[in-house]
Structures are given as C-alpha cells and as structure tokens.
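Support request from a user on the community tier.

User writes: "When I paste my structure tokens into the form, the page sometimes reloads and wipes my input. The last time it worked, I copied everything first. Here is what I submitted, just in case something in the input itself triggers the reload:"
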C-alpha cells in the first residue's frame, strides 16, 4: 500500500475503511488513534470495531522504509521537518538535537504526517486559459490543504508544452523527484529539487534560461526578495502562498509587495471541496 510505505496492520486498517485512491493524508501519533484525511473528510480509523492505536514501532517502520533503513541519509531533510519518499512527503515531529544553539537533527520521532499527492489534470482548468497561453505571473493563495500544490503542478505541465518551464521543488511536493525523475507529471519542465529557493532562483535563471518558473510555497522574506528579483528579469512566475484572500495579503506587510509584483491571483478554498476557486483577480 502507498508504494510499500504503509504495510501490515496499518495498511489493513486503512483499506478496511476507505480506498487508497481517496486518501490525501495519514497522521500517525504514538499512542494515539490513526487519523486519515480523505477527499470527503477526516476521521480516526477503526479496525475490527475499535480505534487503531499507533505504536512507536509503526512509526519506526515508516521511517525505516522512507529512509531506506538509513536515517543518516535523510538527515538534511529531517532537519527541515520532513522525509521525501517517492511522490510522498512525510512530515515529522520529535525532539530537536541542538549544539551551541545550532539545530543538528531530530530524534525520538513520535509523530508523522504523510501527505499523499493526487494528480488532478483538471485542477487548473478554470484559470489555464487566462494565465497559460500567454503566461501571466500568477500567485495561488489558499489555506493549507486546499489544493494549491496540485494546481501549480498542473500549471507547470500545461505551460511546459509551449514555454521553457523550470520547476523549483524545494520540499519535493510539486514533482516529487526520485530516482532521477519526477514521480508526478509536470510535463516537459526542468526540475530542481531539494535546493533552497533563495539559491535556486538565481542558479536556474543563469543556467536553464526559463520563460516560466514554477515554485512551491513562499514564506520567508528572503524567498520573497528572490522572487521579486526573478520577476524583474522578465521571467514569469507561478508560486503559492498561505492566505484566505487577496486583500488579506495586501494588508500584510510581508506579502503586500509580492502581490503588487504579480499579474494574476487565484484564491482556493476547501470549504465545499478541495481546490475550489473562490476568487480570481488581475493585479
């Protein structure tokens, strides 16, 4: 199940209550009920009529599989709070290891959040005619889990049919680059994975000559400044940011300049269904 990442009793418990194709997220907390998010809702999993309680051994098995039985091999990613495994991204929570004020690693992992991406080829259908044929720099705004990464992935795939497109996938969510190729369909785009955006923006422009850059979630001031520099070169950018509306970002001192620099904004919501477009605006 899930490409071998979830096996044994947990796999049986999940399969007993939902289809694998419907699962979008799995939450495993040691000593707590197994929780699954599907396309239709969030619920604790019952097995044989009782809640399935996640054990530390369950968590350790997933980490071992995801790291190919070498936690040291994924140490850099773990410091950033996740482990990539094929098309999946596994968020981790545990005890931080510090040395002289420097964050070194995570130990005693007691909680996992497994994000299960879905390839939705219709995700950008409503906005693609507006922003793809003659690309407009587009900011996708949404709360967590509302489908902004799914939309960006589809915009990358569509844009790459006509334009040189580079996907900057710092957290392995957009393309899920693994074993030398993307595990998810981003078309004919060039993919740069696992590189901090503030570094990748500059190197991609110099080396890959893109018409369009597609990047995952923007948060830090450094990332915002890097995007602004990229836009000033004439490259079009598709990016995402957490938010509820365009106006909420316009009134935020960190993001106001970013909104002004983009040409188009799309706001997603999950109030009725994941990926629902609730606002579109030329900026």
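"...and here is what came back when it finally went through:"
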């Amino acid at each position: 199940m899930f490409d071998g990442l979830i096996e044994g009793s947990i796999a049986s418990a999940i399969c007993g209550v939902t289809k694998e194709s419907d699962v979008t997220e799995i939450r495993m907390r040691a000593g707590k009920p197994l929780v699954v998010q599907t396309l239709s809702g969030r619920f604790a999993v019952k097995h044989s009529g009782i809640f399935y309680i996640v054990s530390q051994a369950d968590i350790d098995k997933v980490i071992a599989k995801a790291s190919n039985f070498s936690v040291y091999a994924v140490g850099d990613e773990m410091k950033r709070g996740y482990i990539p495994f094929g098309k999946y991204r596994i968020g981790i929570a545990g005890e931080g290891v510090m040395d002289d004020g420097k964050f070194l690693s995570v130990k005693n992992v007691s909680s996992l959040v497994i994000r299960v991406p879905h390839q939705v080829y219709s995700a950008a259908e409503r906005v693609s005619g507006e922003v793809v044929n003659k690309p407009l720099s587009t900011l996708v705004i949404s709360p967590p889990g509302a489908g902004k990464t799914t939309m960006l992935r589809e915009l990358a795939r569509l844009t790459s049919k006509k334009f040189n497109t580079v996907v900057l996938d710092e957290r392995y969510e957009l393309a899920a680059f693994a074993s030398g190729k993307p595990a998810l369909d981003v078309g004919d785009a060039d993919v740069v994975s696992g590189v901090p955006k503030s570094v990748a923006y500059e190197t991609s422009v110099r080396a890959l000559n893109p018409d369009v850059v597609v990047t995952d979630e923007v948060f830090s001031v450094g990332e915002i400044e890097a995007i602004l520099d990229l836009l000033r070169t004439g490259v079009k950018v598709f990016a995402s940011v957490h938010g509820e509306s365009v106006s909420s970002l316009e009134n935020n001192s960190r993001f106001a300049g970013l909104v002004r620099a983009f040409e188009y904004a799309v706001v997603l919501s999950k109030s009725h269904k994941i990926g629902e477009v609730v606002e579109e605006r030329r900026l």
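Agent notes: The reload is a front-end session timeout and is unrelated to the input. The chain is about 30% helix and 35% strand. The CA atoms of residues 54 and 70 lie 22 Å apart. Escalated to web team.
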